[in-house]
Specification:
7 helices, Glycerol-3-phosphate (1)-acyltransferase, disordered C terminus, two-stranded antiparallel ribbon, eight-stranded mixed beta sheet, alpha/beta
Length: about 240
């Protein structure tokens, strides 16, 4: 769906975004409770928070729905675009305990990132790093920029399902089927130095892309039966 900066002027579209979020929230909750979660690498997340830092969680756009459930009720600030799609995503996430910082790397991104500096004080942040419009699996610089600006670590993670639907959207949105096994793998965190120049930021962006590829590979290994470093549970809260 193309960006529509004036979508708020349409009563029909305002009603639509409210209805989409209202309909998806109970569905995401119902599905999330049915999954058999297999979490690996949560020690990385726990170590960051134990050190008094706020993680900058980074994932691909196509893994939003299961991630929203797993990481719920942590006060995470998620950057979401100001367009029609970003509105219903933001409303959905608020129902699961997230806060939204509005904007994107393609529309209003620089302003949104400056605003995000204030929004994330004392709170973790989350980026769908190839959003809001792709290209798919190409990281935008927002997460590494925020790490440089705040000194907080980037924490890459990925989610895969043993059985699921993959939508035909640009981001290949994953909807795990009910009661399936869902693997979530957190990679090692890394911090972008405050004195990083443009080349340093580009190297950090590429590092993030490689880390997400590694997390995806490990997710598939976990689902194939390789042992995990955490117990398996039915509830996302059990892995928190």
């Amino acid at each position: 769906m193309p960006d529509e900066p004036d979508w708020r002027t349409s009563r029909r579209k305002r009603v639509e975004v409210a209805l989409i979020a209202a309909a998806l929230a109970p569905l995401v909750g119902l599905l999330g409770r049915s999954y058999r979660w297999q979490c690996e690498g949560q020690a990385h997340l726990d170590a960051v928070t134990a050190a008094g830092q706020q993680p900058i969680l980074a994932l691909w756009h196509g893994r939003i729905l299961p991630a929203v459930y797993f990481l719920r009720d942590r006060g995470i600030v998620a950057i979401t675009s100001e367009n029609y799609d970003g509105e219903w995503i933001a409303r959905l996430m608020r129902r699961f305990g997230y806060r939204a910082s509005r904007g994107s790397t393609s529309r209003g991104g620089a302003r949104a990132l400056r605003q995000l500096l204030g929004d994330v004080k004392g709170a973790p942040a989350a980026f769908t790093v190839d959003g809001p419009r792709g290209p798919s699996r190409v990281a935008q610089p927002g997460a590494v920029w925020l790490s440089k600006a705040t000194g907080n670590p980037v924490l890459p993670f990925h989610i895969e399902a043993a059985r699921g639907w993959e939508l035909g959207s640009w981001d290949r949105t994953l909807v795990p089927r009910p009661f399936t096994r869902v693997a979530i793998v957190f990679g090692p965190p890394f911090v972008v130095p405050r004195d990083a120049d443009a080349e340093g930021l580009e190297q950090a962006r590429l590092q993030l892309e490689r880390a997400l590829v590694d997390c995806e590979r490990r997710c598939r290994q976990v689902l194939s039966g390789a042992p995990t470093d955490k117990h398996e549970g039915h509830e996302g809260h059990e892995e928190k």
